[in-house]
Specification:
about 400 residues, mainly alpha, transmembrane
């Protein structure tokens, strides 16, 4: 029971992560595939922009706050860094959209800019996990997710909002509310501060995690950007819902990191490296068994499941995409215990290096080969994705068990 309770904050973050999939379910029933494709495009774009604004700070909060003797100062360092990153990110986004003549924002520049700013909600909420205030973290993530889903669904179903507009309204209102309320909570706890003195160790950790996370999110989201920009929103309307559903197990990353990073950091602080390796091995084996079982069960029911969850057109066009994406997803999940342990051991540069190489190769293949081949290239692209995930996982696990720890 205690183990299950420890996973509850991560489950709350999982629920928040799957809300876009639930919304796509609504949209595919009545909205056009073009609208569904645009929603999928903006989900990918906001995910990429969100990693820019996070800048590795959620992981830094879970890594450094538990070990800090002055938690208020550490929180101040995190919040100050986040504000600087958000402002710089908004400027970069503005310049990029102007250069592309609005092709990035597709007419939703102002809304994206506001959403961009309030994506700081994620960093603010994760601070409570670093403080071990798990009930607060759980309540905030659940409430934020429910608000996002409810407002988006209600405005779409009953107020004649388009799929894209309802998605943006729900996302924006939920992030505004759950940026302000947690900050007020920190103030009441006398933990709200802004510190200009940022330790080099803190920045190095955050930057390395940011680089790895940004490479990872490009690896998982760039295909949707390419399909929309070089193909069409309708093609992405088929591709993205299927990919989202098959990628749902990736939410385990949030659950596991929410539980394991503070736990592994505490073990590392005690110098008990044998326990750290044993726990990493245990979770890797457990995830391997889970991955094999779920994949074997899911494959025979792919077409039927897609036709029920979405519609027949998406099922006909997307079954192969689903299977290949699911395999790649589980190959990546196997790396999570090892990469979390590397973060706790201050070896995050190894994650950064592996993720950067993997992402760079993928971006080159995805962009260059899609131009002449179009959506015919998607299955080949997904096979390349599976290979990239396997290489990343193998390198991560190998790093833990060849690391010379004293």
């Amino acid at each position: 029971m205690k183990v299950l309770i420890n996973f509850i904050p991560g489950i709350a973050r999982l629920f928040a992560a799957i809300v876009p999939i639930l919304l796509l379910f609504f949209y595919t029933k009545t909205a056009s595939l073009e609208q569904v494709g645009l929603v999928g495009y903006f989900i990918s774009l906001i995910t990429i922009l969100g990693v820019l604004t996070d800048f590795g700070l959620p992981e830094a909060a879970q890594r450094f706050i538990p070990q800090s003797n002055n938690k208020k100062e550490t929180i101040g360092q995190i919040l100050f860094t986040e504000i600087i990153v958000v402002v710089l990110g908004m400027l970069l986004f503005t310049v990029s959209d102007v250069i592309s003549d609005g092709e990035i924002s597709k007419g939703y520049f102002a809304m994206l800019l506001i959403v961009f700013f309030f994506s700081i909600s994620n960093v603010v909420l994760v601070i409570f996990n670093g403080l071990n205030y798990k009930n607060r973290l759980t309540a905030y993530f659940f409430a934020s997710a429910v608000t996002f889903f409810a407002i988006s669904a209600i405005t779409f179903l009953f107020f004649d909002f388009s799929a894209v507009n309802s998605f943006f309204i729900g996302r924006l209102i939920s992030w505004v509310i759950f940026t302000i309320l947690p900050l007020v909570d920190l103030y009441r706890l006398n933990l709200l501060a802004f510190s200009f003195n940022i330790p080099k160790k803190f920045l190095k950790f955050a930057f390395n995690i940011f680089t790895a996370s940004f490479a990872y999110v490009l690896f998982t989201q760039w295909d949707s950007i390419v399909v929309t920009q070089l193909g069409s929103a309708k093609e992405n309307g088929i591709y993205k819902p299927v990919e989202f559903l098959a990628s749902l197990p990736l939410a385990l990353r949030v659950i596991l990191e929410t539980k394991l990073l503070p736990e592994f950091s505490e073990i590392e602080g005690k110098g008990d490296f044998l326990t750290l390796k044993n726990k990493t091995l245990f979770y890797t084996k457990a995830l391997s068994a889970l991955s094999i079982i779920v994949t074997i069960i899911a494959i025979p029911f792919t077409h039927f499941g897609l036709s029920i969850f979405y519609n027949t057109e998406i099922a006909d066009e997307g079954s192969l995409i689903f299977v290949l994406t699911l395999i790649g997803t589980f190959l990546y999940i196997l790396s999570i215990p090892a990469t979390t342990a590397l973060q706790a051991l201050n070896k995050e540069h190894k994650i950064r290096n592996a993720a950067t190489v993997q992402s760079a190769i993928f971006l080159i293949f995805a962009t260059i080969l899609f131009i002449p081949l179009g959506t015919v290239f998607l299955p080949i692209l997904l096979v390349i994705t599976c290979g990239g995930y396997f290489a990343y996982t193998f390198a991560s696990v190998l790093s833990i068990f060849t690391e010379k720890l004293k």
